[in-house]
Amino acid sequence: MAQAVRVQIGDGSSAARPLLEVRDTGTGIPPDAMPATILNLAGSNKIAKPYLAGAYGQGGSTTFAFAPEGTVIASATAESAVGVTFVRYRELDPRKNKNGRYEYLVRAGERGVGRLPRSAVAFERGTLVRHFDYDFDSYRGDARESERSLLALVQTALFDPVMPFTIVEGRARFLRDATVSAAIVYAGRFARLQSAGGAIEYAQSVAIPLEPRGADNVAAAHYWVLAEPNPLLHPDPRHPIVMTNFGQTHGTEERRVIVDLLRLPFLKNELVVQIELDGLSVGVRRDLLSTTRDRLKRGARYAGLIDAIVEALGDDPQLQAANTRRRLLLLDRQQKTDYSKLRRRFAELIEKFAPGDEAAAKRAPGPNGSVVAGGDATDGTADSPPEPLPTLAHPTFLRIARRSDPLQFKRGRRSIVTVESDAPDGYLAVHEQARLVLVDPTLSSLTLVRTSDFRGGRARLTVRTTLPAGGAGVLGVRLTDAVDQVFTDDAAYAVVEPPPPEPAADDGKSKLRVPEIYEVHAADWSRFGFSDASVGRADESIDDYSIFVNMDNRHLRRLLMTIDYQAAGIARMKSSYLVQIAFYLFLQHEGRPTNPSIDDIALEEYQQRELDRVAQTVITSIAAVERIDSSALFDVDV
Fold first, then answer.
1. What are the tens digits of pLDDT across the range 165-176?
2. Given a cut of 70, is residue 293 above it in pLDDT?
3. Would residue 451 count as lying in a domain?
4. Are residues 125 and 28 both part of a single domain?
5. Of 496, 529, 544, which residue is a domain's last?
6. What CATH number corresponds to the domain at position 179?
7. How far is CA 591 from the centre of its chain?
8. Does residue 384 lie within any of the structural domains?
């Protein structure tokens, strides 16, 4: 199938201006139809075809803009002549026109494109688009490599293409080794992740109904936990959430969603999330997707989508379990600081200088109005994944896993119903006609919030009930498989009161978690992603709050190397540095901004520069207290 579409890059006028050619062997377009289809900019031929990727943009003019020397287009069906034309850009009088225009070559005195008889040219049916001197400066590398290349571009733009295609490197300077194939097949990140085997620790898919609720307004979340960081599988650790429409990337979300909203900091480099927008209603998609297809509209619809994603992933206990496993693995050799005195000093600092409004805002509902993951009680477990059940190609049964009889649903909260089957992993995602649904005989007592896919013979249905505490009923679950066989099961349930909220502190102030403090030394830098310039970091999960301080930071090391102190004096200075840096990391973490419009990368870089300045300030303070000449500690430009 990949041979049906070939994207080839060839020699052009320079390394930054190659020849770019796209050739498909599809049905093709007859010459008479080309003006109304492939050459019809801003036309309406795709509006009624939502399965076409160009439904939301001016695709032709977007790519023509990168080919200033023009573009040749040819197409033919199996029976038609070959239609041929040339597209160019013409600048218009800027005093009268905002923009220039694209125009294509036609036969003299007509509006039709040129024609070549099939007998006169060897042209297989399909379409050819050849761009001359394409502006490819940022992707000038070998097309088969994963950096600064054609492959890098399609990996960014097409997370899950509707079909695989072939990339061909045709430039002479990259083809000197005749033993290496000039062509590679690209099937998309989704396909690579789905077939990664042992490189994937955990994977799941969840259907996410959005408002207004209906069968035609459901997004799908596919997510994978990598066994370890892997640049071949992860599209971008800084932007791990990818939004796609029919496989094309329309936007990404920064990892602060994983760190701050989901509170899974130890998965920030290993969790990949794809949000499919294909199943959304036309109106909702119009509210989300821009006409230029280069970004998502970050309005109320987008905020609701992020809320739904956070809630859906927050309901999966295996994500929390994976986060906890990584935290414990990271700390398996790490000694927590023995800080009975330090803890008392730290507590005094918190009491005297507790974070104010910024931290209170962070503890309030999240930036999109939602509570962070873990805010709602569910019937999940964060233990290690249960033993997988035997599976077949298609299911032969369905049963509700009964943790209690009747099932216990918390009033006004989300609750999890786990079902078991011999359906294989990812069965619902692979077979579009397969369905797992809730059956509520009362038609009103229960609401299905979302459904997960099967993994290890189990799937989850997240439900919410409107009944008061003491209410009861019976729910049913129905699985329709890919060949229309139906399997059902039912179970009784009872509605109980949710646990009471944690009481507030006596002084009425917001109750803050006191973190554990760990020292990190040079031998463990690689495990923490530290260097000699690193100061430290704070990580907060649902089940843990830890601060890691780099005790081999270059400023501290320089201080200790410039003094002639006994062990007790060195220990005193290290302890002072530890508690002050830890407290600043605590303040920085508690007061971190939650505004999603702030660029995550720029914010992180700024925070690292601030930490470096704080480390220098603390070192200078320690030197002053110890009466050490601090002029030797830093190289200062005056």
1. 999 999 999 998
2. no
3. yes
4. yes
5. 496
6. 3.30.565
7. 24
8. no
**100: helix, coil or strand?**
coil
For the cut 70, the answer to whether the pLDDT of residue 368 exceeds it is no
Q: Which sign, positive or negative, has the C-alpha torsion 581, 583, 585, 587?
A: negative
- The verdict on residue 144 lying in a domain is yes
Does 38 have pLDDT greater than 90?
no
Look up the domain containing 150 and give its range: 2-187
Note the pLDDT of residue 529.
87
**What CATH number has the domain bearing residue 467?**
2.60.40.10
Residues paired with 191 in a beta bridge: none
Judge if 522 and 628 occupy the same domain.
Answer: yes
pLDDT digits (tens, 9 = 90+) for 521-561: 998 898 888 999 999 999 998 888 889 999 999 999 888 88
State the total domains in the chain. Answer: 4
At residue 373 the predicted structure's pLDDT band, cuts being 50, 70 and 90, is very low
- What CA–CA distances, in Å, run from 380 to 377, 414, 498? 9, 10, 14
Average pLDDT, whole number, for the chain? 84
Which residue, 192, 184, 197, is CA-closest to 159?
192
CA 432 to CA 275: how far, in whole Å?
16
Helices 600-625 and 567-590 cross at an angle (nearest 10°) of 150
Task: Name the most confidently modeled range: 19-33, 60-74, 289-303, 489-503.
Answer: 19-33
Phi/psi of residue 123, nearest 5 degrees: -135, 110
* pLDDT per position as a tens digit, 462-486: 998 889 999 999 999 999 999 999 9
Q: Is residue 9 domain-shared with residue 109, that is, in the same domain?
A: yes
Q: Are strands 165-169 and 218-226 parallel, antiparallel or unpaired?
A: unpaired
Are 181 and 203 contained in the same domain?
no
Please tell me whether residue 167 adopts helix, strand or coil conformation: strand
Which residue, among 112, 36, 114, 33, has the nearest Cα to 72 in the 3D structure? 114
Structure confidence by residue, pLDDT tens digits, 416-450? 999 999 999 999 988 988 999 999 887 778 888 89
To which residue do tokens 């004096």 refer?
569
Taking alpha carbons only, the member of 407, 411, 612 closest to residue 496 is 411
Cα separation values, 336 from 249, 516, 547, 581, 583, Å: 43, 7, 10, 16, 16
Radius of gyration over every alpha carbon of the chain, rounded to an integer in angstroms: 30
Contact 246, 278 (CB under 8 A): yes
Distances (CA, A) of 249 to 155, 274, 372, 446, 632: 9, 9, 26, 35, 52
pTM of the model: 0.79
> DSSP letters along 508-568, please?
SPPPPPPPEEEEE-GGGHHHHT--TT--EEEEEETTEEEEEEETT-HHHHHHHHS----HH
Residue 446 lies in a domain: yes
Residues 601 and 561 in one domain: yes
Residues 346 and 326 in one domain: no
Looking at 39-43, 326-330, 589-593, 607-611, which range is the least confident one? 39-43
Tokens 């003299």 found at: 108
Are both 238 and 264 inside the same structural domain? yes
Single out the residue in 132, 158, 187 at which a domain terminates.
187
- The encoded tokens of residue 99 equal 């923009």
Determine the 3-state secondary structure of 9 from DSSP.
strand
List the one residue out of 392, 417, 391, 421 whose CA is nearest residue 486.
Answer: 421
Quote the CA–CA distance of 593 and 358 in Å, as a whole number: 8
One domain for residues 10 and 158: yes
The answer on pLDDT for 637 being more than 60 is: no
- The CATH number that applies at residue 311 is 3.30.230
